[in-house]
Design a protein that fits this description.
Blueprint (H helix, E strand, L loop, with lengths): L12 H14 L4 E5 L2 E4 L5 H17 L4 H19 L16 H13 L11 H6 L5 H13 L5 H22 L3 H13 L4 H8 L12 H13 L10 H28 L10
Antiparallel strand pairs: 1-2
Helix pairs in contact: 2-3, 3-4, 7-8, 7-9, 10-11
Length: 278
C-alpha cells in the first residue's frame, strides 16, 4: 500500500494558536522548534534556560487542551534531548518545572516522543492516536496518521473503529501471508473469528500465548452429517433418488444447526487450548 503523507497547514486556527507557544519557547534561546510538534535542545544552552523552557511548556500544558498533542511531544523532546545535553543534571526539571505531571505520565510521554518521528506528528490529532501507532515504522506511521487526519472531523471514536481496525487487519494478514502455505488457512481462521490484535496473533503463532479453540469449517460439519445419515441405509439393496435427497436435506439442516451453535459457543467460550496442527 502506498504511503500517504502527513500534511501541515500553517493557516489552520490550531497552528496559529500554537505560534504563541513557539515564540515563547524561542525567547529562552534554549530550544529550536523544527515542526509544530517537536523541539531540539541546543548543545551548550544554559541549564537555567532549559529549566525555563520546560516550565513554560508545563504551564501551557495545564491551560490548553487544543495544544495537548504539541505540548506533550515538546515536553518529551525536551526531556529526551535534555538528558543528552546535560546528562544527569537534566533531572532538575522533575520538580517545580513539571508541576502536575506524575512520573508514569512523564515516562510515557518520553517513550512516545522517542518512537514517533517529528515529521510524523500531527498537531490536530490526539496524543493517544500517536501512541496507538508508535510501534510502527516511520512509513507506516505516516500512512495511518494521514488516514486519521482525513477523518479528523469524525472524532477519535471513528479513528479507533476504522483506522485501527484496518491497521490490525493489514498487519495480521501480512503475518499470515508470511507463514508456510499449509499453515495459512488455519491461522487465517483463528484471526478472522477472534477479536485478536496482530501482536497477540504473532505471540500465538510463536507459542507464547494459548490459542482459542477454532470451530470446524462448514465442510467438515457437512461431511459428518452425510456420514451419519448414510448409516441409515447400510445393508439396503436399493437407494432411490428420494432417499438421496432426504439424506442431503437432513445433512444440510444438521450442518446449519451445528455451525450456528458453534458460532455462539465460540463467542462465549473462555476455555483455551493449543491446537494440533497438521
Amino acid at each position: 500500500m502506498e504511503a500517504e503523507g502527513v500534511s501541515y497547514t500553517m493557516s489552520d486556527p490550531i497552528v496559529k494558536e500554537a505560534e504563541t507557544v513557539i515564540h515563547r519557547i524561542a525567547s529562552f534561546k534554549c530550544a529550536e522548534v523544527n515542526t509544530p510538534c517537536s523541539l531540539v535542545i541546543r548543545p551548550g544552552a544554559a541549564i537555567a534556560s532549559y529549566r525555563k523552557t520546560v516550565e513554560a511548556l508545563s504551564f501551557y500544558a495545564e491551560r490548553s487542551r487544543k495544544l495537548d498533542t504539541m505540548l506533550r511531544f515538546m515536553v518529551g523532546d525536551a526531556l529526551n534531548h535534555g538528558e543528552e545535553v546535560y546528562g544527569e543534571s537534566y533531572a532538575c526539571v522533575y520538580g517545580a518545572e513539571l508541576r502536575g505531571w506524575d512520573i508514569s505520565t512523564v515516562h510515557n510521554v518520553r517513550s512516545i516522543a522517542r518512537r514517533v518521528l517529528p515529521e510524523n506528528r500531527v498537531i490536530g490529532l490526539s496524543f493517544r492516536m500517536h501512541a496507538d501507532l508508535a510501534s510502527l515504522t516511520g512509513d507506516e506511521q505516516r500512512q495511518y496518521l494521514a488516514r486519521a487526519q482525513k477523518m479528523q472531523d469524525s472524532g477519535e471514536t471513528a479513528f479507533r473503529r476504522i483506522v485501527l481496525r484496518q491497521l490490525n487487519e493489514d498487519k495480521g494478514n501480512a503475518i499470515i501471508a508470511g507463514l508456510p502455505d499449509h499453515k495459512q488457512d488455519y491461522w487465517g481462521e483463528v484471526f478472522s473469528r477472534g477479536d485478536i490484535h496482530y501482536t497477540k496473533l504473532q505471540a500465538m503463532i510463536d507459542g507464547q500465548l494459548p490459542v482459542p479453540a477454532t470451530p470446524k469449517s462448514p465442510a467438515e460439519y457437512l461431511k459428518a452429517a452425510v456420514r451419519d445419515a448414510r448409516q441409515e441405509f447400510e445393508g439396503r439393496q436399493e437407494i432411490g433418488a428420494e432417499d438421496v435427497v432426504d439424506v442431503l436435506s437432513r445433512a444440510l439442516w444438521k450442518t446449519m444447526q451445528a455451525c450456528a451453535a458453534k458460532e455462539i459457543r465460540w463467542k462465549k467460550d473462555e476455555t483455551w487450548a493449543r491446537p494440533v496442527e497438521g
